[in-house]
Amino acid sequence: MIPIFMTRRGSVSALVSVPRQDQGLHQFGVGIASAIPSLSVRGVSYDYDHCSAIKSVDLDLHPGTLTALVGPNGAGKSTLLHLIQGRLRANQGTIESNGSIALMPQRASIDWSFPITVTQMVDLGRLRTRNRGQKLSAQQLLNQVGLNGLGARRLDRLSGGQQQRVLLARALMQQTSILLLDEPCSAIDPPTREHLLTVMRQQAELGQTLLVSSHDWGSALDSYDRVVVLDGTVLACGTPDEVRQKLTDMTCMMGSHCCG
Amino acid sequence: MDDFGVWWLTPLILALMVGLICPTTGALLITQRRILLANLMAHSVLPGLVLALAFELDPIIGGLLSGLLGALLAEQLNHRFKGREEGAMNTVLAGFTAFGVLLVPLLKARIDLEALLFGDMLAGNASDVIRTLIAAAALLLLLLSRYQDLVFLGVDPEGAIAARRPVMQIRFITMMITALVVISAITAVGVVLVIALLCAPVLVNLDRSESLRVLMLRSAGTGVLLSSGGLMLAILLDLPPGPLIGVLCLVLLPFWRR
Question: Residue A72 pLDDT > 90, yes or no?
Answer without folding.
Answer: no
